[in-house]
Amino acid sequence: PGGVQSFQSVLGLLVPRLSFASLSVPDIPHIAGYFGTKTRYEEVKPHLLRDPLSADPSVLRPPPAEHCSPVHLTAVIRHGSRYPTLKNIRRIRKLSELVRTEASRASGGSESWLQEIRNRWEAWYTEDMDGQLVMKGRDDLRQLASRLASVFPSLLSEENVRKRRVRFLTSSKHRCVSSVEAFQEGLQRESLGLTSDLCVWADAEPEYSHEVDDELMRFFDRCRGYVDGVENNRTALLEVEKFKHGEEMEGVRRRMADRLGLPHHRLTPGLLSFPNSVPKQRSQTAFPNISLWRLAGRRFRTSLIVPYAANLLFVLYDCQRGPRLQLLVNESPVRFPGLEAEDAPLYRDVRATYRHLLDGCDFHRECEGRAVGRAPNTEL
Ligand SMILES: *[C@@H]1O[C@H](CO)[C@@H](O)[C@H](O)[C@H]1NC(C)=O
Ligand SMILES: *[C@@H]1O[C@H](CO)[C@@H](O)[C@H](O)[C@H]1NC(C)=O
């Protein structure tokens, strides 16, 4: 979701450094881990670079003695890799123009990547690309669907897909609609037993069955408390403004201007948020060494938590002692905070632990400042 995401990337700047295991797969571009919420999924799951369809059913961890079987799956999935939005396409164009014209007069600049930006790189983004899903983004979702179908064969079965027992909700954003379509293509391909060969798939006509529900998926747009209280509230974003014009950012801006051979005053703060949005594949050759995050010498948790195609899965199991629930973040088991003793605690314990949220958070009261009669919360 646009508003929330851009807000998240801003917050991402403020969270402390997380130590990363160094990635050992050789062909990961060295700036790939520095893109915050615009990071590719493979940074979180490097083994997918070798086999994008490799699925690991051992992530499902209900107690073996209780003979559990998964009976329900709820997944919240972010859209896949996308083009920069219009605002950033314009910034990229402006910056590359600046480097071509201003930097060529500056001293030094013998480094090959800089030469490449100056002489060969063209701003190939067109304005109609505005935030659209890229081909890689479609693959992100197709492949995720295929892996999930391998981990949950009884739930995402051919029959369940065909009989429309799987329900898809999406926001109206084109990148989200394209993502939910790609996910369904992945499931249908899986259920048809097709290989990952895209040519084979192209012959089969995919059928889509999603509903657009902005009330749910873009709830923040309709939440007056958020829109007035945060998004359009200069006072609430004061700290962000301070950060953007603060000492650290200033230092980053200076170092970036130096790297690019630009006069410092030409690289305005307004141009700076671009590296966050440059798709990885192209940026590897175009901007190999000037990622903002890289220059800041930091990686941020948002790269790990919400890359493109980030996903949150709630798996409900039927077990001898009653229903159990497991949480997976980006296909890895994560224990519920407050219930760390087990991977898949009893459902009733999860409900009890989160009662204050499940029963205590009323959308209308939070957003409109007034209580509205409502049914009991059945979301978990
Ligand atoms: C704007 O943000 C400030 C600081 O968080 C807050 O005190 C104020 O109530 C907000 N204004 C509105 C209209 O919500
Ligand atoms: C980018 O920077 C790193 C570390 O500063 C350096 O090792 C690497 O050679 C640079 N890459 C290019 C293409 O200049």
Topology:
Blueprint: H1 2-12, E1 69-77, H2 86-101, H3 112-119, H4 135-151, H5 158-162, E2 168-170, H6 174-191, H7 198-203, E3 210-212, H8 214-217, H9 224-231, H10 238-244, H11 247-260, H12 280-286, H13 292-296, H14 301-305, E4 311-318, E5 324-329, E6 332-334, H15 347-353, H16 355-358, H17 363-368
Helix pairs in contact: 4-6
The chain binds 2-acetamido-2-deoxy-beta-D-glucopyranose (2 copies).
GO molecular function: acid phosphatase activity; inositol phosphate phosphatase activity
Organism: Neolamprologus brichardi (Fairy cichlid)
Protein name: Multiple inositol-polyphosphate phosphatase 1b
Low-confidence stretches: 1-26, 196-201, 274-288
- Give the CA-CA distance, first to last residue: 22 Å
Oligomer: single chain
The share of residues in extended strands comes to 5-15%
- Classify the secondary structure makeup into a structural class: alpha+beta
Number of contiguous helices? 17
Please tell me what the overall shape is. Answer: globular
Radius of gyration: 23 Å
Question: What molecules are bound to this protein?
Answer: 2-acetamido-2-deoxy-beta-D-glucopyranose
SSE succession: HEHHHHEHHEHHHHHHHEEEHHH
How is the biggest beta sheet arranged?
A: 4 strands, antiparallel
Helix content, binned percent: 25-40%
Strand line-up in the sheet with most strands: 1-4-5-6
Number of strands: 6
Q: Mean pLDDT score, rounded?
A: 80
Signal peptide: 1-21
Keywords: Hydrolase, Signal
Pfam families: His_Phos_2
InterPro entries: His_Pase_clade-2 (IPR000560), His_PPase_superfam (IPR029033)
